[in-house]
tRNA threonylcarbamoyladenosine biosynthesis protein TsaE (Enorma phocaeensis), 176 residues
Amino acid sequence: MALNRVSRGRYESGSQADTEEFGEIIAPLLADGDVLVLTGGLGVGKTHLTKGVSKGLGDEHPVTSPTFAIMAVHEGGRIPLFHFDLYRLEHAYELEDTGIYDVLGYEGVCLLEWGEQFQDELTDEFLGVVITRVGQDERTIALEPHGIRAEELAQAIDDALVASEERRHITEPERQ
């Protein structure tokens, strides 16, 4: 199974590599100030998606979940990537110590794992990316835009995924 578009804003991933590919496809569309809130249970692929975004931005450094550090900065790409893992935070007042307010919505792109628990404290303008396990390796990825820029980004991602599928279908018969 490969990365597939099910409908506008809804995609299927058949593997970790597909989830990373999704990140690589969306990376060129991201701009300074974009915020993605990555939602899903433990082990569904939030960090794999972040790895793909980092690679798609041109940063070749390894990406791991910043569960204990809370924030990791990846500056080797065309724009900085601020990767937050808010899993260990219990209260909104703890956000102050993470450095999130210094960068959120201003420079680079922010990817927030477990950010849904603090949506009211963070920003009104973000793209929710909900990853759900549907099998051993299979996942669904759903986009939930909040705000005008997020709507534009969701549409651009959908267009890019459609184009990617079309390219894949054109080249697959040539391989046979």
DSSP finds five helices and eight strands in the chain. Helices lie at 16-26, 46-57, 100-103, 119-122, 148-175.
